[in-house]
Design a protein that fits this description.
Blueprint (H helix, E strand, L loop, with lengths): L4 H14 L15 E6 L2 E7 L7 E6 L6 H16 L7 H12 L4 H8 L4 E8 L7 H11 L4 E4 L2 E7 L10 E5 L8 H18 L3 E3 L12 H12 L7 H11 L4 H8 L3 H15 L6 H11 L8
Parallel strand pairs: 7-8
Antiparallel strand pairs: 1-2, 2-3, 4-6, 4-7, 5-6
Helix pairs in contact: 2-5, 3-4, 6-9, 7-11, 8-10, 8-11, 9-10
């Protein structure tokens, strides 16, 4: 049916929200990958299809049904493929970037082919029991504004240009890294994995890696790292122990939430934490001990912004 003037105008406004700014005087600001509104009884949605051609998919419906967002996201994926333009650049540019990486180029050398200088890594897992498939992963990538998607077991990893702020996605639990340059992509990947673990443990749709400055920033990094290596040496040979201890401390000593975050049984968490306490020779009920261990564990790669 024909849309009324109010609905048409609101749809145009939604399209302007998700469409990246352009022009020499445009200020680069994060643009959401989708936006919704309700006007005159019509439910409206807009989905960004790409940055270079600035295409937008607009949807108007008299009512909103379960599954509508997923269907529209899949349609956005297919339309993005048909238009041949993505936030991350053309398929030829991505192919060239992959070949250069395989032949030994550094990430910072190929990043310009992908269309961004600063990036965030998103780790996401579906809320249901089923593992994500290629279509669902592509739909998530489109919703986040990126075609750089990888399905790794039950987790989807997406590399997103930092000028797009990742939003919570229906049906997904997400962890988002801090914005980094290409040289720090591996660190951002670790940050996103830990943010996702915390999101799952706390049943939060999206958790971002924190970059808040703290007292630890007053200590020279070389001295802090040396102290951490010495303090954690007794448990460093078994990577599961420091990771379990770090997660347990970050979740305020909750056995159940730590078990969810690490996808292990709560008794396994208890055994690992008890083993850490024995090897380190400390009382983990002492808040001063917890604080010192947290300071040391924060020196691990990817733990700090």
């Amino acid at each position: 049916r024909e849309l009324g003037p109010g609905v048409s105008g609101a749809s145009a406004e939604l399209a302007a929200i998700v469409r990246p700014a352009e022009g020499p005087g445009a200020t680069p600001t994060p643009a959401p990958s989708s936006a919704t509104d309700t006007v005159d009884g019509s439910h409206l949605a807009a989905y960004a299809l790409g940055a270079e051609q600035r295409f937008v998919l607009g949807v108007a419906a008299p009512r909103r049904e379960p599954g509508d967002h997923t269907i529209a996201s899949v349609a956005a994926v297919l339309l993005s493929l048909l238009t041949g333009e993505h936030q991350s650049g053309t398929g030829a540019a991505r192919s060239s970037a992959l070949v250069r990486l395989l032949l030994g180029a550094a990430p910072e050398d190929v990043a310009p082919l992908l269309g961004g200088k600063r990036w965030v890594v998103v780790h996401a897992c579906p809320d249901g029991p089923a593992a994500p498939d290629a279509v669902a992963a592509s739909a998530l990538g489109t919703a986040l504004g990126s075609a750089l998607v990888d399905v790794d077991g039950g987790v989807v990893r997406v590399l997103v240009a930092a000028d797009r702020e990742p939003d919570p996605q229906p049906g997904w639990t997400c962890g988002v890294s801090s914005a980094v340059g290409p040289r720090e992509w591996a660190t951002a990947d670790t940050q996103a994995a830990r943010a996702l673990a915390r999101a799952r443990a706390t049943r939060t749709p999206l958790v971002r890696h924190s970059e808040r400055p703290g007292l630890a920033d007053l200590v020279p990094s070389a001295e802090a790292e040396a102290h951490a290596r010495t303090l954690l040496a007794p448990i460093a040979t078994n990577p599961a122990l420091p990771e379990t201890l770090r997660t347990w401390l970050s979740l305020h000593g909750s056995w159940d939430r730590t078990a969810v975050a690490l996808s292990v049984h709560r008794n396994t968490v208890r055994q690992r934490v008890a083993r850490c306490a024995a090897l380190l020779g400390v009382d983990l009920d002492d808040p001063d001990v917890r604080m010192e261990l947290w300071f040391a564990l924060r020196q691990e790669p990817g733990a700090r912004g």
